[in-house]
Amino acid sequence: MRDLGAGFGYLMKGQRWVSQHGKQFGMGLLPGLITLVLYAAALVCLALWGDDVVTWATPFADDWTSPWAGLFRGFLTAVLFALVLLLAVVAFTAVTLLIGQPFYESLSEKVDLAEGGYAPESGLPLWRELWISSRDSLRVLVRAALWGVLLFALGFVPFVGQTVVPVIGFFVTGFFLTEELAAVALQRRSVELRERLALLRSRKGLAWGFGTPLAVAFLVPFVAVFLMPGAVAGATLMARDLVGETTPEPAPEPVPHPTGDPATH
Asked: pLDDT higher for 114 or 29?
């Protein structure tokens, strides 16, 4: 429970950090806005033709008596839409980070400098960083999709599929969302995907506390755009915790000698 609160605390600290650095916040909005336009078009297409896809995929229900075929396909359409929304949260983050790689790298570095006075660098050229980010994001999306298929199947279980499964879905999405965001800072520290996943599995509460509320908030498209810069900042703060980096304590101010300059005594 302590880690859950700490994870949510990092999310809030990240939002507070960007609110105090307006230039970084403004630059961090641009990639999210671009991604939002792309995803809005995709979700509109799904809303328009999702039922056609479900009808095509369930020919065995063509001969069912009314209203069972319609109810069955309507339920599957709703589940499909919910599944796509959950996957879209992770994919939205991955695509936004890829588009905004230079912006978010700069933001993450500035958070490191502000908190620790030093920003680790990967030493890799930009094209190499983009390649690693896109490759790792694809791997994360495959893992998220496998979980999505499992949750989709469990959605057919009466009661559990309509109550427990959606909650699990948000926690799973939150975990992968946290990995995507923390990767910005951890890649600069040469922490590979396997190591990042192992770190987050060892602190699941931290990942859930950070990513699950964010996953819920990201279901509202415009909210996702405005929270993204702060999410990167907060994930950088969390990454410092995961690898054991601490913010140095400020040096104590010298106490003046009661009788003047001590060197004269």
From this structure: 114
